[in-house]
């Protein structure tokens, strides 16, 4: 077996300011990798580079053996709407707020050539069900949905084309605790059932513990510790990680 | 008011043709437009930016079409100008006179006699033939404009063939109305590549875009874009397999010439709700009448 | 027997004749000469030249006369004429530092080398109607010329250049390459500053004014001071290849405004002032000031400022909508016939309504009619009949 995603010495800076540097890791099929760290640690920059939203300055990103940094824009976009998915923290960034729930879910299908209205609608209905949104809401717009429903709709919209690799940026941020728990539960089920590989950025160690198989801790643009989730959280080695873990436990 | 109306019109002004270059535009400008046209022909449906000139008629009134026509005209041409299918609507008259004055070319109202037809909002009913040029006036050339207002973004979407959004719009129509609620300027895909706005022709005319023997040129002056459909090019109206595109027209026949298959204008004839339907293509209608065809209200010469 | 409306040609002829009559007005009143318009309506002439992008006071005056005083129509006439003119070449950039000053003020310094010159301005006129102007033939009092100001041929350096020397001003470098010509190449986004300035210079005064005002009220605020506003005449020079040097080919009046704007600086750059720039042909200081504010607002990206989503920060929005000839043409084109599009909409909406009515539950269809209106107001029969037929 070979890794789905291999990252080698990835670096990105904004002028004089460092975004992230010397990041290397492998992501295996079906694996969930959590990236944790406080804001400004470079975790969002790293995610942006991986997903192709930001242009990295150095290093390689090999997806199934091909360097995505060397790909043409059309190739990268094709990947982004077929094998990849991206779940934004704010559902407004990942949804079309003026388009119905069904249209939101159907867009990716149509973007890759689906041209049968009935089938698109059936797929949308199916996916709304899988993220626990009633089929009767299919023609409603996301504006009429609660925050948790919007986030679930965003997930449905992303997963409808059966991607292999999903990037998530604080997917439970900004939601109530009870809503978060339900969403995490749903995500965990989907990841397991679909065998997804996931790179998830979060500052919430509880989310990381529930979802991630492996963790990477970032500080000031560098990876300072990585390992199995339980190992990192229960027996942190780096001083910063110890601080991070203890600060959570106090809460 | 009535006194003014009865006053005699001024005699015709002398022709402008001596003050201006043939067909108004200077040769450098025409060359620039022809280059854009050639590029448009080479990449069917692609919007070529061109340095649109200010014309002596308002933007939005056919300045793009007029510039394309000016760049294509040669003295031997026979020009036809229609607006809404009719040769005698005021803007068609105005544009025809502009070229009579500035190019001195012969004009005609007969579709089959014309070598170049400038049109606004219609494709003539009579099939065009090889060697003819059909020039469309285009207000908004970008089919994605009302989904995405940013030019920089829509150009990228075309470049990357990122047309999912276009179908989302059609999907939303069906979800809301049960059918695709676009009745004119119905988007098409040209030669399997570029999605194109066919200008605000009724969707009834869309099938005529495809496999047409004539050269079809589109000019948008204000938006500074030219695009083209070469002869015999496949043009497909966007749709879904289970909601196929259907050209539609008023469910009636022309009350003057009896044509059942031509696009009709609805005319309100009194204030009690009476109406009649007549061909929007005036040349088609008069030709049919001259051939002896009669419609419902034209059987005998009674009101 | 219905006959489709014919005679568009005759109608157009008659409309033009009528228009000519209206333009002339009462023949008992003497006709305005082009020279009178040029001399006595000079600010209107200036605006037509600026937004028409053609320096020719006589033609601008003629256009105003022909357009019955409708300045946008006059600008349109000039633009259309300009299209047909051949290009002989480009002048060398005019040097506004060597301007023969008619008016020059700075809001940032009490006094500046070269002095503050009030010039012919409305600024401190009380806006009271001057009924003396109604009394025809009454000449205004002859101006007295101050012999001291007459010989202020002393150079008036740009005020901002003084700040520049102290390093307080953002540096401004001459671009080596010839800027693109908005009227000869299509406007493509994103547009560089040279192109933006061209578009603003010929943009609609009212639109630019409104945008500039919006920045002052907080929609893309830039904290502008008028560093300098100057109006005067500049020599236009052209390189003549055969001669190998530039010769003056004439003189044009220009209004130039440079604003000084706050800038807090960043980690890499110390705090300094930034600038907005406005240059308009003719005497048109409202436009020049407005232009400099909008120019500055549009520079948010290069200066690392936040995009607050203000209209004046959105280059694509501003440039696509500032041209009044494009705007008026497209706006007014909706009065052209749209029978065909409208007909197709009519069919569609009828069909959708038919289908909706057919699909609606039967119980809703025979809605209880309200009691008939009192007999005192007889209901018109035809509309009711029309509805019943539906």
UniProtKB/TrEMBL annotation, chain A:
Q: Does the keyword Cytoplasm apply?
A: no
Taxonomically, the superkingdom here is Bacteria
Q: Using the record's annotation, list all stretches that form the ABC transporter domain.
A: 5-245
User: Which keywords label this protein?
Assistant: ATP-binding, Nucleotide-binding
Q: What are the BP-aspect GO terms?
A: organic phosphonate catabolic process
Q: Which GO terms describe its molecular function?
A: ATP binding; ATP hydrolysis activity
**Pfam families cross-referenced by the UniProt entry:** ABC_tran
Cross-referenced InterPro entries: AAA+_ATPase, ABC_transporter-like_ATP-bd, ABC_transporter-like_CS, P-loop_NTPase, PhnK
Is ATP-binding one of the keywords? yes
Name of the featured protein = Putative phosphonate transport system ATP-binding protein
TrEMBL record, chain B:
Q: Name one Pfam family in it.
A: PhnJ
Kindly state which reaction or reactions the protein catalyses. alpha-D-ribose 1-methylphosphonate 5-phosphate + AH2 + S-adenosyl-L-methionine = alpha-D-ribose 1,2-cyclic phosphate 5-phosphate + methane + 5'-deoxyadenosine + L-methionine + A + H(+)
Q: Which residues cross the membrane?
A: none
Q: What is its EC number?
A: 4.7.1.1
Q: Which GO terms describe its biological process?
A: organic phosphonate catabolic process
Output the InterPro entries linked to this UniProt entry.
Answer: PhnJ (IPR010306)
Mention one GO molecular function: 4 iron, 4 sulfur cluster binding
State whether keyword Metal-binding applies: yes
- Keywords per UniProt: 4Fe-4S, Iron, Iron-sulfur, Lyase, Metal-binding, S-adenosyl-L-methionine
Q: Which family does it belong to?
A: Belongs to the PhnJ family.
What does the UniProt function comment say about this protein?
Answer: Catalyzes the breakage of the C-P bond in alpha-D-ribose 1-methylphosphonate 5-phosphate (PRPn) forming alpha-D-ribose.
How is this protein named in the record? Answer: Alpha-D-ribose 1-methylphosphonate 5-phosphate C-P lyase
From TrEMBL, chain C:
Q: Name one GO biological process term.
A: organic phosphonate metabolic process
InterPro entries per the record? Answer: PhnI
Q: Where is this region: Disordered?
A: 359-390
Q: Where does this protein have compositionally biased stretches of type Low complexity?
A: 359-374
Q: Which Pfam families match?
A: PhnI
Q: Know the name of this protein?
A: Alpha-D-ribose 1-methylphosphonate 5-triphosphate synthase subunit PhnI
Task: Name its species.
Answer: Phaeovulum vinaykumarii
For this protein's source organism, the top of the classification is: Bacteria, Pseudomonadati, Pseudomonadota, Alphaproteobacteria, Rhodobacterales
């Amino acid at each position: 077996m070979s890794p789905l995603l291999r990252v080698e010495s990835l670096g990105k800076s904004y002028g004089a300011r460092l975004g992230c540097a010397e990041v290397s890791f492998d992501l295996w099929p079906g694996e969930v990798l959590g990236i944790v760290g406080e804001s400004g640690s470079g975790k969002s920059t790293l995610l942006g580079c991986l997903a192709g939203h930001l242009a990295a300055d150095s290093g390689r990103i090999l997806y199934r053996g091909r360097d995505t940094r060397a790909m043409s824009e059309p190739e990268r976009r094709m990947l982004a709407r077929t094998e990849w998915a991206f779940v934004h923290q704010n559902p407004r960034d990942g949804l079309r707020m003026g388009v119905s729930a069904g249209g939101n879910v159907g867009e990716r299908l149509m973007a890759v050539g689906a041209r049968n209205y009935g089938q698109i609608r059936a797929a949308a209905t199916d996916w709304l069900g899988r993220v626990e949104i009633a089929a009767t809401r299919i023609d409603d717009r996301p504006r009429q949905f609660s925050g948790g429903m919007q986030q679930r709709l965003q997930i449905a919209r992303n997963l409808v084309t059966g991607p292999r690799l999903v990037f998530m940026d604080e997917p439970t941020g900004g939601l109530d605790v009870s809503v978060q728990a339900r969403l995490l539960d749903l995500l965990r089920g989907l990841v397991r059932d679909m065998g997804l590989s996931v790179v998830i950025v979060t500052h919430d160690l509880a989310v990381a513990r529930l979802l991630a198989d492996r963790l990477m801790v970032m500080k000031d643009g560098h990876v300072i510790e990585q390992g199995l989730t339980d190992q990192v959280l229960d027996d942190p080695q780096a001083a910063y990680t110890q601080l991070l873990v203890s600060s959570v436990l106090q809460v | 008011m009535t006194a003014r109306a009865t006053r005699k019109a001024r005699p015709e002004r002398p022709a402008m043709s001596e003050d201006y270059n043939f067909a108004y535009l200077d040769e450098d400008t025409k060359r620039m437009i022809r280059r854009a046209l050639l590029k448009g022909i080479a990449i069917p449906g692609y919007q070529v930016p061109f340095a649109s000139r200010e014309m002596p008629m308002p933007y939005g009134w056919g300045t793009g079409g007029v510039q394309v026509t000016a760049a294509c005209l040669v003295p031997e041409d026979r020009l036809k100008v229609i607006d809404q299918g009719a040769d005698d609507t005021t803007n068609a008259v105005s544009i025809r006179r502009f070229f009579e004055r500035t190019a001195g070319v012969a004009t005609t109202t007969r579709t089959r006699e014309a070598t170049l037809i400038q049109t606004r909002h219609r494709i003539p009913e009579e099939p065009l033939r090889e060697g003819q040029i059909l020039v469309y006036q285009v207000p908004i050339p970008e089919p994605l404009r009302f989904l995405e207002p940013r030019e920089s973004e829509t150009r990228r979407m075309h470049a990357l063939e990122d047309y999912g959004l276009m179908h989302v719009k059609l999907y939303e129509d069906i979800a809301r109305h049960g059918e695709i609620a676009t009745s004119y300027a119905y988007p098409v895909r040209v030669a399997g590549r570029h999605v194109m706005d066919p200008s605000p022709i009724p969707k009834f005319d869309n099938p005529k875009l495809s496999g047409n023997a004539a050269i079809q040129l589109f000019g948008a002056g204000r938006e500074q874009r030219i695009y083209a459909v070469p002869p015999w090019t496949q043009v497909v109206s966007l749709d879904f397999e289970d909601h196929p595109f259907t050209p539609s027209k008023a469910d009636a026949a022309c009350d003057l010439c009896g044509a059942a298959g031509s696009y009709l204008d609805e005319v309100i004839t009194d204030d009690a709700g009476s109406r009649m339907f007549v061909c929007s293509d005036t040349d088609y209608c008069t030709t049919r009448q001259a051939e002896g065809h009669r419609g419902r209200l034209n059987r005998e010469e009674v009101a | 027997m219905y006959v489709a409306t014919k005679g568009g040609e005759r109608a157009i002829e008659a409309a033009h004749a009528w228009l000519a009559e209206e333009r002339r007005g009462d023949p008992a009143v003497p006709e305005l000469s082009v020279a009178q318009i040029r001399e006595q309506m000079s600010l209107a002439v200036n605006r037509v030249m600026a937004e028409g992008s053609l320096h020719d006071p006589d033609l601008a005056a003629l256009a105003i006369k022909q357009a019955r005083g409708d300045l946008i129509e006059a600008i349109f006439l000039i633009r259309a004429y300009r299209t047909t003119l051949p290009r002989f070449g480009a002048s060398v950039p005019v040097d506004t530092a060597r301007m023969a000053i008619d008016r020059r003020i700075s809001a940032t310094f009490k006094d500046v080398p070269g002095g503050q010159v009030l010039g012919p301005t409305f600024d401190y006129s009380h806006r009271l109607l001057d009924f003396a102007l109604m009394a025809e033939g009454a000449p205004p009092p002859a101006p007295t010329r101050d012999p001291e100001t007459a010989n202020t041929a002393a150079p008036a350096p740009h005020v901002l250049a003084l700040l520049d020397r102290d390093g307080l001003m953002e540096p401004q470098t001459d671009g080596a390459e010839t800027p693109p010509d908005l009227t000869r190449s299509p406007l493509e986004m994103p547009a560089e500053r040279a192109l933006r300035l061209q578009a603003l210079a010929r943009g609609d005064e009212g639109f630019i004014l409104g945008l500039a005002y919006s920045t002052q009220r907080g929609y893309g605020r830039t904290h502008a001071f008028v560093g300098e506003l100057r109006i005067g005449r500049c020599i236009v020079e052209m390189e003549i290849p055969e001669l190998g040097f530039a010769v003056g080919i004439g003189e044009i009046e220009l209004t130039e405004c440079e604003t000084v704007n706050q800038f807090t600086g960043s980690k890499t750059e110390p705090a300094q002032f930034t600038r907005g720039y406005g240059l308009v042909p003719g005497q048109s200081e409202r436009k020049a000031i407005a232009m400099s504010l909008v120019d500055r607002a549009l520079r948010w990206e290069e200066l690392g400022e936040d995009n607050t989503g203000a209209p004046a920060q959105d280059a694509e929005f501003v440039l696509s909508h500032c041209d009044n000839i494009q705007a008026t043409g497209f706006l007014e084109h909706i009065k052209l016939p749209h029978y065909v599009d409208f007909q197709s909409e009519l069919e569609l909406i009828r069909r959708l309504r038919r289908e909706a009515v057919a699909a609606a539950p039967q119980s809703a269809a025979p809605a209880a009619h309200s009691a008939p209106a009192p007999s005192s107001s007889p209901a018109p029969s035809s509309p009711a009949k029309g509805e019943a037929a539906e």
